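Data deposition worksheet. Section B asks for the primary sequence of the deposited chain exactly as it was used as input, without tags or linkers unless they were present during the calculation. Section C holds the resulting structure in C-alpha cell form. Section D is free text for depositor observations; keep each observation to a single sentence. Incomplete worksheets are returned to the depositor.
Section A, Depositor: J.P.
Section B:
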Amino acid sequence: MTIDLGNVELVGARLRLRELRAGDLGVYQRIFTDPQLTRYMGTDSLGVQAAASSFEAAVGSRAESPRRKYTLAITASDADTMVGTIGLLVEDFGSNAMIGGLVVVPEGTLRAGGIEAGRLIAAFAFGPLGIHRVWAGHRQDHPVMDTVMSGVGLTPEARLRQLYRTQGRWRDVCTYAAVRPEWAATATPAERRILAMRPSAAKEHATAGR
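Section C:
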C-alpha cells in the first residue's frame, strides 16, 4: 500500500490525522491565539494575523520538495471537523524526526486523543518516511505530558535546562525518544498498516539517513 506524502491521511481506532484545509483556519487560529491552549508550547500565543500566516505556511509545506514538515489536523475517525493539531519535523541530520505541536481542544470528544495521535504520527515516521529515531519534548512542569509520552511509546532521555523563553521565563524541557525496531514491536494493527505503507513514487520526500 502506498501513501501520497503531499496528502497524508492516517486513520486509527478513534481518530484520524489529515492535511490542513482552508476551512480549518478558524480552529487553527483559535488554538494558537489562546494563551491557555498554548501555555506549554515553545512559543507564546500568536495574534490573529500571525496565526493566519502560520496556517498558510503549514499548508504551503505540502508543496515542498523534499517535504520535511507535516502539520496535520486531528479529527474523529468518522468526522471531518478539526479538533486539534499535531506536527512532525524531519530533521536534516541522521535519521531523526521530532513530534511537536500537539493540541486537542478541551471540549471535544477526543479530549484524551493525544496518545493515539502521537502513535499514528510515529508510525508514519517509522513506516513511510523510513525514520530510525523519533523524539519529542515537553516543558518540565507540564502536569500530564509525561503520561502522554509514555503512551506514545517514547522513553525519557534528558532534561534540557532553560531551552526556550515563554511568558517571560526560561523553561526546562524533558526529552523522550523511540527507535524503530523497539517501537514497531509494540504497534497495534492500525499502526502496523501505517508502518507497512510506502510513499508514492511521484513525490520526492525527506527520509534522512534511510
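Section D:
The longest helix spans residues 48-60.
The chain has a mean pLDDT of 92.
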